[in-house]
Amino acid sequence: MQASPVVNSTGNGWDLAVKIDNQSSLANMSGGTVTVQEPAKDLSATAYTKRDSEYLYMAVRMTDNTHFNNNPAGDSWKGDSIQFAIDPGRSIGPGDLGWNENGIALNSDTNTVMKTGGIGGNNLAHSPVAIQRSGSETFYELAIKWTDILPSGMTDSDVTSAGYTITGLIGGTVPQSQMTATASSTQEGDTPASNAIDGSAGTFWDSQYSPGLELPQWITLDLGGTYKVNKVRYLPRGSISNRRILTYIVYVSTDDENFTKVADNGTWANDAAEKTAEFAETTTHVRQEALTTASINANIAELNVDYE
């Protein structure tokens, strides 16, 4: 008797399963079919599937240069994830015996596994899941208990079709929670550099102004990973107009020591609207430098970094 796969992020047992690569989008699944879609430019995947009378086993080894999903479980489909639907009576007619949508994902902020779906919204309560992110690869494993996904009275032999959707996110915003911020100077008090990445427009970073330090002044963000950055978004402090950055330079670095200029002598209006600086560089650090402001120091309420 063939052993069943082990859901523990090791990949054990999947050599006995049906392998589906992204070069052939359709494969036999012991009486059903599995479709693997590839919507993202930087995404490739290999999927495996197997079934027995107790579980439907699925595994996906996905390569994606960035893993990002900080959505709540119910919205996990909006980021990197595996989504799948079960239509047990498809041979009779699509949806004739009911169907359900399910998903698993790894939260990129908390590194916790998210599960959704199942009959009656049970969120696959009896179905083991393991997800491991290593380098540019994410390995998803799950053993779906048939009773979690089939209506009462139905068994695995009634299932004739299942479908995968592999979702890879193209672009996004680097989570502020994984970044760290340092600055050329900070006004003594409650205005540290970390205020620029705390998600609150009501807190802010101030460069030192008492006693005053001459401009330029800067803030550097360690992105907590490597990203192909295409935009920096700067939100000024809304209530104080004389500290807003008017001209600026943006630098990038991969070692936090040697910085390359990517946006030079840019100008921003003296208003409270969010400002942007656009470029395209693969980097681990971004430095926002204030050349001139409407006063003697620089001020940033929020700083965000977008990537492709």
Walk me through the structure.
The relative contact order is 0.14. The chain has one helix at 146-149, and strands at residues 18-21, 26-28, 33-35, 43-51, 55-64, 81-86, 100-106, 113-116, 129-134, 137-145, 162-167, 172-173, 180-183, 205-206, 217-235, 245-253, 260-267, 275-293, 299-300, 302-307. By secondary structure, the chain is an all-beta fold. Strands 12, 13, 15, 16, 17, 18 and 20 form a 7-stranded antiparallel β-sheet that branches. A 5-stranded antiparallel β-sheet has the order 1-4-5-10-9. Strands 8-7-6-11 form a 4-stranded antiparallel β-sheet, with no helix packed on it. It is built from 1 helix and 20 strands.
Strand fraction equals 35-45%
Q: What is the CATH-assigned architecture of the largest domain?
A: Sandwich
Number of helices: 1
| Strand count | 20
Radius of gyration: 25 Å
Global morphology: elongated
Low-confidence segments, given as residue ranges, are 22-41
CATH class of the largest domain: Mainly Beta
Structural class: mainly beta
Looking at CATH, which topology of the largest domain would you report? Immunoglobulin-like
End-to-end CA span? 47 Å
Instruction: Report helical residue fraction.
Output: under 10%
